[in-house]
Amino acid sequence: MKRGMLTLVAAFSVLAMFRPLAAEYKFFAPRGSFTVEISLENTDRLRLPIYRNAITSLTCIGDYAIGGTRANEGLSPFLFAASLSSRSLEVVLDLAEVLPGQRAIQSGFGRVENVFYAGTMPDKEGSSGHLIKVQFANKRFEVTDLGEPVKGEGTFALTADSSLNMLYGISHPSGRFFSYNIQTGQVQVYEETAVTERQLAYYHHYALEPEDFLSRALVVDKSGRVYGSRPVNSVFRFSPQSGKIETLKDELPIVWGRRPLGRVDSWALARDGTLYGGNAGDGQLFKIAPLTGKLTNLGKPIMMPRLVGLAFGCDGKLYGVAGALPGYAHLFVYDPNDSGFTDLGNPKFPLHVPEIAGELPWRGFQIATVAASEDNRYILMGEDESLSQLMVFPVK
Questions:
Q1: Could you tell me which of 215, 213, 147 has the C-alpha nearest to residue 177?
Q2: In whole angstroms, how far apart are CA 296 and each of 63, 103, 108, 129?
């Protein structure tokens, strides 16, 4: 009898323990949100094949979302264009048709006027990634190979300064910072950000690979200076006027014992010139005042690590995605006016399914990249799955 009573008490205790978790669990499903079906097997409709469609680069021009993907080993990535108004995939290009031997368009897109630039990661270790020029017009991609910025390395992150016609990137696996003059094709490589042998040994101790600690994104401030992260847990700033790289005094935010995981995951530039960034290791949001270089930790939007994407909406608020394996993605919004976070929850948007002439709820568990439409009225999110889709929601 006593044993039965103890069992019953234990069962109620377990239920009580999980009750708050269930109460806190929520979905983000705003009116007007939708999912564009980018990938699906066993269909004759225009879709990207499995294991080649993780959306690792994303931008927008007019009505179109432009994306670049990552593929599994031995396979090639795609460029794609999806219409936001028709909510459909309209154009795809297998990158192997114009540039074989590449596995990922991972760098993000840099834009100069209506032309986009990106960097690739090679399929085989020791091979070279390329810079590519991407033009999209009349429902057609035109891709130009701009060569190998760093011989024997891929391009892990990229940004553009349209006022100077310059591209800036981070190479993989060494972490070298480089610049590319669009008009002349001249490349300059800087050693200051490269991973040292001592740092490699330090990261090896924690079983970390270059993709775990290299700067995943770069940003250009309103003065034309370029920001990224470098080992260990530091932020660097490059001045094109002086050609010099400096390391900011303030490190990225840390949680004790997790400093090796610190690197920039994402950036967003506010209208007032403030830089907002996400720290991958512990998923903290931070800001940098460009005039002083002062870095301020704004805290963690959710409990999980990573902060894979940031974008400002037309309401002036900052929208972001935090969380990654072994957890899952949460949408959050940060209001710079009141310095407050709101955890919006796990995204669940309707997906139109022609076979059933209806809609199904599509959940975004793993998201790799975030962008805003040109008018900032839509926030776009690209999944990082074997069958990835494009998720879109309106800014109210």
A1: 215
A2: 36, 36, 25, 35
Matching residue, tokens 């990158």: 95
Mapped onto helix, strand or coil, the DSSP state of residue 95 is: helix
For the chain, give the longest Cα–Cα distance. Answer: 86
Q: How much is the pLDDT for 365?
A: 93
- The reported pLDDT for the residue numbered 24 is 54
CATH of the domain at 36: 2.130.10.10
Report how far residue 92's alpha carbon sits from residue 40's, in angstroms, rounded to the nearest whole number.
Answer: 14
Structure tokens at 162: 């349209």
Terminal C-alpha separation, the chain: 59
> In whole angstroms, how far apart are CA 291 and each of 108, 272, 274, 286?
26, 12, 9, 16
CA distance 371 to 374: 9
Q: Is residue 106 a part of any domain in this protein?
A: yes
- The torsion angles phi and psi of 175, rounded to 5 degrees, stand at 80, 20
Place of tokens 């770069």: 218
Inside any domain, residue 8: no
Structural domain contains residue 6: no
Domain range enclosing 141: 27-394
Cα within 13 Å of Cα(318), Cβ side? 29
What is the C-alpha separation between 153 and 256, in angstroms, rounded? 33
Write out pLDDT tens, residues 215-247.
Answer: 999 999 999 999 999 999 999 999 999 999 999
With tokens 């630039």, the residue in question is: 117
Q: Count of domains in the chain?
A: 1
Q: What single DSSP character describes residue 129?
A: -
pLDDT at 19: 42
Q: How confident is the model at residue 258 (pLDDT cuts 50, 70, 90)?
A: confident
Average model confidence (pLDDT) for the chain? Answer: 92
The sheet that has 219-220: what strands, in order across it? Answer: 219-220, 226-230, 234-239, 244-247
- Is residue 21 a part of any domain in this protein? no
pLDDT value for 6? 39
- Using pLDDT thresholds of 50, 70 and 90, give the confidence band for residue 25: low
Tell me the two tokens of residue 390.
């494009």
Q: Where are the alpha helices (DSSP H) in the chain?
A: 2-24, 197-205, 210-213
On the question of pLDDT at 91 being above 70, the answer is yes
Block residue for tokens 């990082």: 384
Residue 136 · residue 66 · CB < 8 Å: yes
Extract the tokens encoding 240: 């094109």
